[in-house]
Amino acid sequence: MIKKLIIGNAIKSIRSYYPDYSEEQIEKIQYGLESVYLSLTKLVVIIVASIILNTFKETIIVLLLFNLLRTTGFGLHASKSWACWASSLPTFIGIPLICKYINMPQSVLITVACISLICFIFFAPADTYKRPLIRKKRRIIYKILTIIIGSIYLALLFIIKDQFFINAIALTMLVEAILICPLTYMLFKLPYNNYKRYKG
Fold it and tell me: Cβ contacts of residue 34 below 8 Å, gap of 6+?
């Protein structure tokens, strides 16, 4: 597989240049490389699909809105790459299509955004087993930032009149709320609040 070949060669090079690196450090680097590879390949497929479906601009906007929340709120990561593909592609190909062609009532979108913001208050940031948020101060900062971003998004729903934008804001908030919800972690049988495995 191309992925194994590329990452395997990268790890070999890192081991040769930095022989003093521990196995734990190598594992962290490998996890990071796998995440970057997966993200880039998914992005290419999503962009190509958006061009075919004539939703390129809408897809870029949805990705920007979502990733701004994801950067501070974090949330569930699929344990298998195929599961990541199976969830990401329908989401980031489907949401721009929905936002572009379906008119949803503003009251419904505001309700969705309010529920999502409540989830941010209670559950953000949600870490993962491989990337636990150990430092309490960092968790607090990320929570505050996620709530601020979510509040700005909610406020924009009362200001913006463009149907696509209000659809995109509400639906990206909903996706992030689902990804940080403990019930979602339970559904996929993944550990929640992973920082609790560590002291401090």
Answer: 3, 7
- What is the spatial distance between Cα 141 and Cα 4, in angstroms, rounded to a whole number? 36
**CA separation for the pair 184, 189 (Å, rounded):** 8
Q: Cβ of 6: how many Cβ atoms within 10 Å?
A: 13
The packing angle between helices 81-101 and 163-180, to 10°, is 150
User: pLDDT truncated to tens, each residue of the chain (200 aa)?
Assistant: 676 777 777 788 888 877 788 877 777 787 777 778 778 889 999 999 999 999 999 999 999 999 999 999 999 987 777 788 888 899 999 999 999 999 999 999 999 999 999 999 999 999 988 788 989 999 999 999 999 999 999 999 999 999 999 999 999 999 999 999 999 999 988 899 988 887 65
- What are residue 74's phi and psi, to 5 degrees? 55, -135
What would you report as the CA-atom Rg of the chain, rounded to the nearest whole angstrom? 19
Residue boundaries of the structural domains of the chain: 1-52, 55-197
Nearest to 118 by CA among 84, 88, 154: 154
How far is Cα 107 from Cα 112, in angstroms, rounded to an integer?
A: 9
CA distances from 139 to 56, 98, 101, 102, 129 (A): 34, 33, 38, 37, 15
Give the Å distances, CA to CA, from 44 to 20, 48, 82, 92, 181: 35, 6, 16, 12, 28
